[in-house]
């Protein structure tokens, strides 16, 4: 496996444990015997979890794995995902319960009950149908965190249309490639979005993206910031004009358990993002099961807040599908954590008495940087479960989270999973597990994960290797949109003999057999919990006329986990590699991919270190980027290259 960074080595020396309090355990949803129950009969265990949902027709078979690696879960079952997330809570007498406490960045807010959500989703579903959309069609959504984004997703699900949410920070080029890949018929967006206290445009970016996009028939625009936007006659429609006048009655049709629910694009090791495909019954089962047990959620009592954006899988599974299936009352916040001040999250926790809070290590480290005195100003006593997701959490941040946010008592659940897994896979269970700072610990009941060596043989306690998932699970991806070959190659070819799913993460067992995640082993970087491939950034750089060649590495970063560091060779001698040129390149990457992909640092070099077969040795560049002694250079075609790079950097060239 690839070498570990010093920060990750550090994780493995951590030995503190925090057993659950008796009081917490006594009321916990999860119990220790879940593990044995699931081990005894996995399919019976999952069948029991599927009973959390309303099925119009019950399944005849729990799992069909005969066509592996494409699974079928709850075969023959029929359900409507939106009905499960909305209507049935109204039908069971909870229509007045708040589903969403929405908090806008500028200070506006809306409380939406389940009854209102049902009306909103029904109207939107009628609206989409009035445009001729049919089950199986695709709708792309690029929106900020406004309630209509959630309504749009649920409306698609209700009529069997696949949504594909594209993160609001993605560039027009990135949106376009996703729209084209799935041949989306409709795009839903907003006029603008609030970011850091200012209104920023959104619709104009969508217009730029869609120039000449043949599949797109209509663009629906939600009014958010009120800024003026150009309207393309015949194509663009205002959401309020289309949706508000629709009937609030809409009969949900039941779809097959394996009916596709959504596509979500994520970075792989090549430049082209992968459209990860998820289906209905299995996905929703795992979403509901994990949300209930991992967060110890109690419907009608807890106030839950997941700080993710709906543009990422965490927003899909732990803002939309899992929580709503479980009749959660949740906070949805539109904006940035330091607008208008650095206590914004804690102010919201205090105001809404948030009891379950789920966020990412990068944000926890940012809170640490802002200072302990900020959360101390607020009443956080309502918090009883804290979650972390997106990247390995370093023990220091874990302890800070526990002490400063969790009053030294709230259990922390460090949840490992991926866009591809659909839901949480490895995590402590609050009330059951004695937690360890920095370790995700154990595969959940019903889930099976192993750490294996190069040959696919499980390593022993204390050993490290690759994380694999050795048994199918309900929320697993069913493919990559339009590219079955890539699906098989990416996930199933590495350990084809054993039939393991290759996650792309390095991991290690400690002496107790608990799992510690060590970061990606492929060319995927993790910046603030966002997956960005080195190739994607390299292609963006070489698309600039001044760049001849580029190599990109993820370097350990104290706040964002990894930071993007690029090494570029400029074309010809005429171009100088001064600050302005570098700034221009950084902006170019932001324009091509989105601001999250903007390199932290760009170093202009004369040569790149390559092996004889022409592979760039990123390991050596990472040494430079992390200010380490450069490692073994013997496999380089020209071993003097590293001296050239290092001396060039020192002399500021
Ligand atoms: C949910 C999500 C997946 C990649 C994954 C891994 C990293 C996520 C983690 C974690 C260590 C955790 N990752 N959670 N690493 N501990 N608790 O983040 O999905 O955006 O697809 O990223 O994120 O490297 O492979 P996604």
Can you put this structure into words, describing what you see?
- Residues 536-615 form the AMP-binding enzyme C-terminal domain.
- CoA binds at residues 195-198, 314, 338, 528.
- ATP binds at residues 390-392, 414-419, 505, 520, 531.
- This is Acetyl-coenzyme A synthetase.
- It comes from Amycolatopsis keratiniphila.
- The protein is α/β, with parallel strands linked by helices and 653 residues long.
- The protein has two domains: 22-432 and 442-505, ANL, N-terminal domain (Rossmann fold); 528-650, GMP Synthetase, Chain A, domain 3 (2-Layer Sandwich), CATH 3.30.300.
- It is 32% helix and 23% strand.
- It is built from 21 helices and 30 strands.
- The strands form nine sheets. The protein has a seven-stranded mixed β-sheet with strand order 5-4-17-16-18-19-20, with helices on both faces.
- Helix 5 (81-94) packs parallel to helix 12.
- It is globular.
- The structure holds ligand 6R9.
- The site of ligand 6R9 has 23 residues, from helix 12, strand 20, strand 24 and strand 25.
How many separate domains make up the residues?
Answer: 2
CATH architecture of the largest domain: 3-Layer(aba) Sandwich
Overall, the morphology is globular
Please outline the major beta sheet.
Answer: 7 strands, mixed
Q: What's the arrangement of strands in the largest beta sheet?
A: 5-4-17-16-18-19-20
Enter the CATH topology name of the largest domain. Rossmann fold
The radius of gyration computed from the alpha-carbon positions, rounded to a whole number of angstroms, is 24 Å
Look at the helices and sheets and give the structural class. Answer: alpha/beta
The hetero molecules present are: ligand 6R9
What share of the residues does DSSP label as strand, in percent? 15-25%
Number of strands: 30
Poorly predicted parts: 1-10
In CATH terms, the superfamily of the largest domain is ANL, N-terminal domain
- How many individual helices? 21
N-to-C CA distance: 34 Å
Family: Belongs to the ATP-dependent AMP-binding enzyme family.
Pfam families: ACAS_N, AMP-binding, AMP-binding_C
Domain AMP-dependent synthetase/ligase: 92-481
GO molecular function, one term: acetate-CoA ligase activity
């Amino acid at each position: 496996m690839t070498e570990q960074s010093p920060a990750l080595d550090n994780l493995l020396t951590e030995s503190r444990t925090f057993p659950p309090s008796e009081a917490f355990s006594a009321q916990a949803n999860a119990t220790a015997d879940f593990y044995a129950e699931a081990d005894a009969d996995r399919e019976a265990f999952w069948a029991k979890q599927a009973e959390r949902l309303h099925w119009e027709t019950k399944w005849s078979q729990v799992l069909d794995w005969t066509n592996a690696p494409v699974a079928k879960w709850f075969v023959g079952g029929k359900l409507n995902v939106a009905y499960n997330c909305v209507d049935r809570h109204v039908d069971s007498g909870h229509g007045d319960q708040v589903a969403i406490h929405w908090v806008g960045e500028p200070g506006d807010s809306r409380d939406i009950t389940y009854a209102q959500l049902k009306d909103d989703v029904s109207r939107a579903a009628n609206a989409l149908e009035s445009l001729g959309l049919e089950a199986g069609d695709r709708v792309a959504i690029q929106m900020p965190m406004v309630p209509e984004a959630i309504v749009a997703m649920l409306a698609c699900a209700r009529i069997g249309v696949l949504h594909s949410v594209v993160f609001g920070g993605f560039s027009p080029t990135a949106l376009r490639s996703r729209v084209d890949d799935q041949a989306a018929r409709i795009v839903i967006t907003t006029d603008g979005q609030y970011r850091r206290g200012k209104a920023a445009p959104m619709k104009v970016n969508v217009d730029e993206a869609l120039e000449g996009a043949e599949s797109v028939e209509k663009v629906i625009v939600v009014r958010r910031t009120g800024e003026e936007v150009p309207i393309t006659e015949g194509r663009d429609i205002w959401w309020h004009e289309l949706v508000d006048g629709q009937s609030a009655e809409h009969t949900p049709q039941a779809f097959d358990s394996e009916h596709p629910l959504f596509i979500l694009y994520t970075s792989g090791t090549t430049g082209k993002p992968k459209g990860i495909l998820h289906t209905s019954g299995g996905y929703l089962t795992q979403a509901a099961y994990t949300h209930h047990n991992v967060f110890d959620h109690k419907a009608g009592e807890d106030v839950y807040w997941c700080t993710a954006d709906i543009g990422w899988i965490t927003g899909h599974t732990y803002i939309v599908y899992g929580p709503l299936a479980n009749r959660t009352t949740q906070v949805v916040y539109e904006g940035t954590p330091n607008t208008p001040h650095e206590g914004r999250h804690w102010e919201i926790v205090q105001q809404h008495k948030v009891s379950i809070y789920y966020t990412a290590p990068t944000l926890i480290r940012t809170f640490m940087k802002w200072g302990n005195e900020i959360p101390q100003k607020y009443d956080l006593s309502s918090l009883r479960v804290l979650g972390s997701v997106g990247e390995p959490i370093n023990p220091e941040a874990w302890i800070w989270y526990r002490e400063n946010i969790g009053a030294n008592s709230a259990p922390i659940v460090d949840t490992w999973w991926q866009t591809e897994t659909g839901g949480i896979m490895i995590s402590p269970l609050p009330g059951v597990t004695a937690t360890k700072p920095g370790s995700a610990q154990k595969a959940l009941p019903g889930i099976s994960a192993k750490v294996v060596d190069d040959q696919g043989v499980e390593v022993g306690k204390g050993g490290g290797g690759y994380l694999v998932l050795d048994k199918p699970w309900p929320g697993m991806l069913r493919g990559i949109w339009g590219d079955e070959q890539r699906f098989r190659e990416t996930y199933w070819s590495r350990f084809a003999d054993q039939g393991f799913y290759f996650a792309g993460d390095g991991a290690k067992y400690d002496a107790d057999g608990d799992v510690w995640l060590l970061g990606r082993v492929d060319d995927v970087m993790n910046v603030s919990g966002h997956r960005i491939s080195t190739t994607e950034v390299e292609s963006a750089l070489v698309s600039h006329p001044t760049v001849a060649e580029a190599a990109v590495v993820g370097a350990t970063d104290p706040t964002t986990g990894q930071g993007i560091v690029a090494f570029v060779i400029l074309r010809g001698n005429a171009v100088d590699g001064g600050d302005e040129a570098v700034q221009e390149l950084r902006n170019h990457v932001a324009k091509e991919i989105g601001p999250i992909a903007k390199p932290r640092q760009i170093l202009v070099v004369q040569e790149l270190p390559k092996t004889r077969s022409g592979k760039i040795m990123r390991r050596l560049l990472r040494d430079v980027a992390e200010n380490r002694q450069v490692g073994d250079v013997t496999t380089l075609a020209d071993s003097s290259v590293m001296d050239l790079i290092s001396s060039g950097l020192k002399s500021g060239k």
